[in-house]
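Notes taken during the Thursday session

The instructor put the following on the board and asked us to keep it in front of us for the whole hour. The protein is Cytochrome bc1 complex cytochrome c subunit. We were told not to look anything up and to reason only from what is written here. First, the residues (259 in total):
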Amino acid sequence: MAAVVVLLLALLFSGGLYAVFAPTSKAEADETAQSLTIEEGKKLYSVGCASCHGTGGQGTSDGPSLVGVGAAAVDFQVGTGRMPAATSQGPQVPKKKNIYSQAEIDQLAAYIASLGAGPAIPTEEQYGPQGADIAKGGELFRTNCAQCHNFTGKGGALTHGKYAPDLEGVSPKHIYEAMETGPQNMPSFPGTTLSEENKKDIIAYLDAVNSSKSESPGGLELGGLGPVSEGLFGWIFGLGGLIAVAVWVAARTAKAKKS
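Then, after some discussion, the predicted structure tokens were revealed:
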């Protein structure tokens, strides 16, 4: 019996040592790291977001529900400084300098993603313009986006004081996330509407347009705002020039008659 007891004690001792010192599996380590990220994100959310969006992200009269918006929406809104919003704001939340680091944004995004499934933060392979079809992107942009953002992405006015922002200088990741999540007045373009390749083509088109701003083959581009600015220019200077010529001709005619 003594030998059996000693054997059992030895097994318990060795099993305990193995449980303490055995390496944790990668899956368990990843799960632990994700749990810690979510926990840190929840703390940040409680301080900076809960007053408007509710303690559990359910939304209040001051802010919509965040359940199911996904990590991509958080990365866009917080990464562009639109959230947290100012206490007093106009009809639309403007872009501004963000107050969180990328690590903190990732933690917030992880917490919001844990509340309900939604679009994930895209990878560089998804939004990078490399290998994309710029011509196809221009066609897609003019069909789906130019009505609000103008055909060169300069932006434009909407109703009731709202506006489509200028896309120059916006990072490809944020453009992809905006198409995926549809922030504020913008409709969303999920994979069923615009595929991942389509989004990549649009991003490549905007990159090409923005990088060639200094090279205007048509001469003076008038801000690249399209027919509104061009029509105004033609109306003021074209019609004004015709009036000036008419006055000059009339004055010359009157002077000739007097002489």
